[in-house]
Amino acid sequence: MKRFISTLVFLSLVKIAGAQSLFSEAEYKSLVADPIAKQVGDSVTVLVIETSKAKTNSQDQDDGSLDVGGKFSTTNRSEQGSIGLNLGYDARSANARGGELRAQISVDIKHQDHLGRLYIEGRQVIVVDGEEQFLSISGWIRPEHIMANNTVLSTRISNSRIEYTGYDTEEEGFFSRLLSWIGF
């Protein structure tokens, strides 16, 4: 009987205590898994692989010549004459531009919108031989586009802004600098 009463007391205390789990699935972070950016303040690596090409052609074509001619004839009763002028030109132009940028940059998640998209932003400065190169990226990504190695392709960034400012590798020659200094 003593055992029965102690079991009832024990069961009533358990019911009063309102047992709750100590495990929260929403806040769980594995100690062995690779961290993947999911929230504001996390970092993600952007693989910049951008290629652009543009080409325009313009073509106007005539005979490319200048002809001047005339004819005049007379008879006893009338005089007739004619003069002709023919102008033509040939103009062609073509423009082509292209660019390619390949880089890696770590960016931070700054905001999360009501749809779950993440706004990223980051800047990198590289100094080579005293010359600075700047790379900055901003835009929106979807969490499902973040790969298992915590990277995202630049082509997956919506409303992206990718800026690269490098240095000019061609140095001005001595005579060009001298003439510039003189004022020519």
Order of helices and strands: HEEEEEEEEH
Mean pLDDT value? 77
Unreliable segments of 5+ consecutive residues? none
Counting DSSP H or I runs of 4 or more residues, the number of helices is: 2
Q: Could you explain the architecture of this structure?
A:
With 184 residues, the chain is mostly beta strands. 14% of the residues lie in helices and 51% in strands. The strands form 2 sheets. A 6-stranded mixed β-sheet has the order 7-1-4-5-6-8, with no helix packed on it. The longest helix is centred in the first third of the chain and has 16 residues, at 2-17. The chain is elongated, with a radius of gyration of 38 Å. It starts with a helix and ends with a helix. The relative contact order is 0.18.
Outline of this structure?
This protein has 184 residues and is mainly beta. It has two helices and eight strands.
List keywords for this structure.
elongated, 14% helix, 2 helices, two-stranded antiparallel ribbon, 184 residues, mainly beta
Topology (elements, then pairings):
Layout lengths: L1 H16 L25 E19 L4 E9 L4 E9 L2 E23 L5 E11 L2 E11 L9 E3 L4 E8 L8 H9 L2
Parallel strand pairs: 1-7
Antiparallel strand pairs: 1-4, 2-3, 4-5, 5-6, 6-8
